[in-house]
Design a protein that fits this description.
By secondary structure, this protein is α+β, with helices and mostly antiparallel strands. The protein folds into two domains: 31 residues, no CATH class; 116 residues, bipa protein (OB fold (Dihydrolipoamide Acetyltransferase, E2P)). It has a four-stranded mixed β-sheet, covered by helices on one side. The chain is globular.
């Protein structure tokens, strides 16, 4: 940070010297965190030697562990672990990314799992399940979101994230070397 000024009306101006590679994706993060109330302007200063890569700032992801159709019951379990990016009724497959984990590690979750049916009924067993709407991202946001071991599938009807290696066994083998 090179400068910070407040105008007394609730507005603050921050000035930074930042390498261009650190600005990739910052606009979306800044607009999201400030609920669209920020303005960003960039200006070239000078060329400098290449700096080391930036540290990972994104949390881990929620990965579908079984193929099938995402069900409300399974998505409710996933939302207990983080933010989902798929809605009920979405076809999922093993290795597909279905959400953002609240922690730094990746977790596999079966979102195609339905509620077990029994003959016994409790007074609260038939309550409706309420889930929060999935996070919607643009193509640019998906590209900012990607890590080295992930791919983005682009089709005319949808954008889907997936792991490079779909099965858990293949992902473990790739991580070992």
């Amino acid at each position: 940070m090179t400068n910070m000024n407040s105008d007394g009306k609730g507005n603050t101006r921050f000035e930074y010297k930042i390498p261009s590679k650190a600005l990739l994706g910052i606009r979306n993060i800044l607009l999201t965190n400030t609920k669209g109330t920020s303005v960003i302007n960039t200006m070239f200063d000078k060329y400098e030697p290449l700096t080391p890569p930036l540290p990972k700032i994104r949390n881990g992801v929620l990965i579908a562990s079984e193929p099938g159709t995402a069900l409300t019951f399974g998505l409710q379990n996933a939302q207990g672990r983080g933010i989902t990016i798929v809605e009920p009724g979405t076809p999922v497959y093993e290795g597909m990314i279905i959400g953002l984990n609240s922690r730094t590690d990746d977790i596999e979750i079966n979102v195609a799992k339905g509620k077990h049916l029994t003959n016994m009924r409790a007074s609260t067993s038939d309550m409706s399940i309420a889930i929060t709407p999935p996070l919607r991202m643009s193509l640019e946001q998906y590209l900012d979101f990607l890590e080295d071991d992930e791919l983005l599938e682009v089709t005319p009807k949808s954008l889907r994230l997936r792991k490079k290696f779909l099965s858990k066994l293949d992902r473990v083998r790739a991580a070992r070397g």
